[in-house]
Amino acid sequence: MKPAIINVSLTKKLNNLSYPIFVGNNLLSNSEKIIKPFVQNRKVILIHDNFFSLEKKNNHDFVNFVKIIQHLSETVNFIGIPGGDKTKNISQLNFILEKSLSFKISRDSLIIAFGGGVIGDIAGFAASILLRGLDYIQIPTTLLSQVDSSVGGKTGINSSEGKNLIGSFHQPIAVIADINMLKTLSKREFLAGMVEIIKYGLIKDVNFFNYLEKNYQEILNYDQSMLKNIICMSCNIKSDIIEKDEKENGERALLNLGHTFGHAIESYGKYDGTIVHGEAVSVGICLAFKLSNIMGFCSQVETIRVINLLKNLKLPTSLNDINISITTAKMLDKFRYDKKNKNNQLTFILNEGIGKSFIKSNMDISVLTKFLDEEI
Q1: b/e for 3-36, b at 16 or more Cβ within 10 A?
Q2: Residue of 246, 248, 279, 302 marked catalytic
Q3: Which has the least CB within 10 A, 81, 167, 233, 312?
Q4: Overall pTM > 0.85
């Protein structure tokens, strides 16, 4: 299977920035041609999930990739960190920064993030502030990170006040999404990634949603051509939005469909695995569609279609499906920290139908309170 190459092009005032996203199977074990232009004769810091190591069995792709970059680069230094959202904290970030500096790096050194979204977020943030900015490459190993967090340059860590409140925009110089890595995922993590894929159909492309609705069973059976297709479709939709709005001053906020509710839910889950990001967003998407329906923007028929697809995937679709204690007051308090808000007014992403998301500013608190009281 030849890799698909998606190019993200970002126009800035002073220069044009573009980078490729490689999508295909067995890319890492055969990555010399792809990776050579980026790593040749550079000092590399490989920040990886501890799940992957040179000593563990069944890590052939990781081992082969390491051999390739060791052959091509000046040196390769390793920083292993735990996966999971608890890793995205200031203490872990400081560890990465100090460890990286101990390798005597220079501004032409390169960081490679090898792991899921958590690894990509914190490694990318470290790259953005080390020596005031180093190049980095994203190698996402989960479905969620391949279609979402590895693309677009959002990097950061969590705060005690909420998710991703500390960070920066720092675009990678390349993304390599190897479909073969998805075999390492638990069913739960795979399904969490499916939520973000469904999100793209909901915000921009009803035909993509229809495709997922029709073919979800084959996708769950890891059909290689379908996986490649849906990863490419997701990256294309996200790339189109980012090219128009890199810093989330407008349309990029649409990518947060379900995330205002979802991030609040995650924060009360304390990032301890009680609920993972995709599950929280699944509930958040359903809440956003229900709210859209109640406010007269979206039909009940389309709302039910969305909920039913997520139910068919055995994902949570309501607050009653998750084991987290949340009150209306607590949810409203978390909403105030949402990065989309402006002038102390709550902003939500709602839908006029499947494939038609829009930004709803100045949300009426009384409507939101009544809605949450009925849902909780």
Answers
A1: bbebebebeeeeeeeebbbbbbbbbbbbbeebbe
A2: 248
A3: 312
A4: yes
